[in-house]
Design brief:
Layout lengths: L2 H21 L4 H34 L3 H26 L3 H34 L1
Length: 128
């Protein structure tokens, strides 16, 4: 993932967006979605490499893979939610963006529940 290439893609997308917004405003959001999709695909490969490295580190540290998986899923939910909310904000749909953010928060908590239960069981075990 080269930050310069991603930055150039973002600037190019913004310029095309500004041009399309003046000519055909109804197609402007599609330009942003397309440019964002290209950037997300570029970043996705790096994300999987990072998750494999974190997996190896957790194995060496003796931590359970399940907890790392839960954290990675919660992180994924946060990233996708923020991306979707930002697109909504950019298109003057703040109510929709707020709903997406709420859904992301609930989703992250739901994914993290098994880990929270394990922490609670451990704490109860230590108190006995």
């Amino acid at each position: 993932m080269d930050v310069a290439k991603i930055s150039a893609a973002a600037i190019l997308t913004a310029m095309i967006y500004a041009l399309v917004r003046q000519i055909k405003p109804e197609f402007a959001p599609v330009v942003i979605l397309g440019g964002s999709a290209v950037i997300l695909v570029a970043v996705a490969g790096r994300f999987f490499e990072t998750s494999e490295t974190i997996d190896r580190m957790m194995h060496l540290a003796g931590l359970e893979k399940e907890n790392v998986s839960i954290l990675m899923r919660a992180l994924g939910i946060c990233v996708i939610t923020q991306f979707a909310a930002d697109i909504c904000y950019d298109n003057s749909s703040s109510a929709l963006a707020a709903a997406v953010e709420l859904a992301g928060r609930v989703g992250a908590i739901t994914v993290a529940l098994p880990m929270l239960q394990a922490v609670a069981k451990t704490a109860l075990g230590l108190m006995e």
